Amino acid sequence: MQNRLSWNGSTPSLSLLAVAALLAACGSSEAPPKNPEAGVSADVGAPADTAAPGPTADGASSVDGTAAADGMATGDSGVTADSGATADAGVAADVAGSDSGTGGGLGSAVAAKVAVGRLHTCALTSTGGVRCWGVSRDGQLGNNTIAETIVSSPVQVTGLASGATALASGADHSCAVVAGAVKCWGGNDKGQLGNNSTTHSAVPVDVIGLSSGVSAIAAGFTHTCAVTTGGGVKCWGENGSGQLGNDATDDSKVPVDVVGLSSGVASVAVGLNMSCAVTTAGAVKCWGTNSFGELGNDSTNASHVPVDVTGLATGGSGVSSGGATTCATVSGAIKCWGKNNHGQLGDNAGGLGVESHVPVAASGLTAGSVSISVGFDFACGVVTGVVRCWGNSPAGMETLVSVEIAGVGTAASVSAGTNHVCAVTTAGAVKCWGDNSAGALGNGTDTDSKVPVGVISLP
Fold it and tell me: Per residue in 245-258, pLDDT tens?
């Protein structure tokens, strides 16, 4: 356990000091092992069958507008639909934070968005290509390889050289939107690829029923959600806590409609065992597990259908869920609710049993917030071009309020995963930091980094 820092409500600035974070089962406070194999979640039941690498899927993948760069499986954060894609920025593993397009290198392309998973990372380039790096145990790199392989620099996702408009990464799978169609690849033990199967896939596969008309995508631990061009929400995958929002608890290997959200939704975010959406009117609604108040409705009762987040009927522009905590950008401010044992609410409080069942303001983050991403027990946001993180983050120190991450440059979006974080600069460079045992930082090594490093040139 790291020493906790408590700042009297101010927003100090300091560099990343060490790598830490975790993602085990919901509610766990112990950091998971860095060994890729050991990183597999214990709550996933029997292993799914694994398909041999097959032919390239013909659809492109897409990033969820708010999902990928804002958190692991939070549309925004891992899963929020409001993060941008990562463009290939120029070459360079520079840690100085240059955002000139030559730092953070993704070859000659420019990154539009980055999506961070558990032990892998994917980027959407400005030309609509998708590239991934990290561990490839379940085919999550999408390069037709499903063996236990670590790839520490970006590789092309099969069939997605161009045309993708949205991207999201969950724990061990990723999805993209191409020409309005959804394509997914990687782990599929709970049907999170949406192709009516539980077989992993090392290449993108078509999501049944979503061959057109999709605008955003969000990937969580073992479930996935999409927003249609008509503003409806559909989800698929694991549903033991009602996270699919269809008033049931049976897993679904194909998309199902979320009750009450057939229209009027702007973005969606997916967390561990819950989901949230932001309506076009700026209201935030959540559904699924609620043990720590992560639905934000002043309750700890799970809900299998969307419920209103207390006090957020208007003004919401993005939302992200991770672990048992949720955060939203509201009129430029950041508000969080749910579990707070490591200070992940950012309200200068924290500790075992300290949680909030309704949104609280993240200390000092009252204006200028454009991106939010929640990891397992930490969160990061972009505020006036600066990446700030709080909680038990890969900064290697628990902080009860946000601290500035030096060395990124001028940031456009951020994506928090289990043990690592990546940001996209306004020039399209990608910078990552944290656990690199599986090569998820994309800098050609497996050495952890306490400071942001640039993703090396793409092949």
Answer: 999 999 999 999 99
What 3-state class would DSSP assign to 427? coil
Determine contact, residues 86/123, Cβ cutoff 8 Å.
yes
What is the token pair recorded at 174?
């990723």
Residue 47 lies in a domain: no
* Percent of the chain surpassing pLDDT 70: 75
Which range, of 88-102, 349-363, 438-452, averages the lowest pLDDT? 88-102
Which range marks the domain in which residue 280 is found? 4-41+58-454
Q: Is residue 339 part of a domain?
A: yes
Q: Kindly report the length of the chain.
A: 459
The answer to whether residue 69 scores a pLDDT higher than 70 is no
What tens digit of pLDDT does each residue of 84-132 get?
332 222 222 222 233 333 334 465 567 899 999 999 999 999 999 999 9
d(C-alpha 329, C-alpha 319), whole Å:
6
Burial 124-152 (b: 16+ CB within 10 A, else e): bbbebbbbbbbbbbbbbbbbbbbeebbbb
pLDDT (0 to 100) of residue 11: 35
> Collapsing DSSP states into helix, strand and coil, what is residue 363?
coil
Given a cut of 60, whether residue 216 has pLDDT beyond it is yes
Output the domain CATH number for residue 341.
Answer: 2.130.10.30
Distance, CA of 452 to chain centre: 18
| Residue 243 included in any domain | yes
Whether the CB-CB separation of 419 and 407 falls below 8 Å is answered with no
Does residue 51 fall inside a structural domain? Answer: no
Distance in angstroms (rounded) separating the CA atoms of residues 6 and 25: 27
pTM (predicted TM-score) = 0.80
Residue 159 burial (10 A CB sphere; 0-12, 13-18, 19+): buried
Domain count of the chain?
1
Q: Under 8 Å CB-to-CB from 423, ≥6 apart: which residues?
A: 69, 114, 380, 382, 387, 405, 408, 411, 412, 413, 414, 415, 430, 431, 432, 452
What share of the chain has pLDDT > 90, as a percent?
70
CA 417 to CA 390: how far, in whole Å? Answer: 14
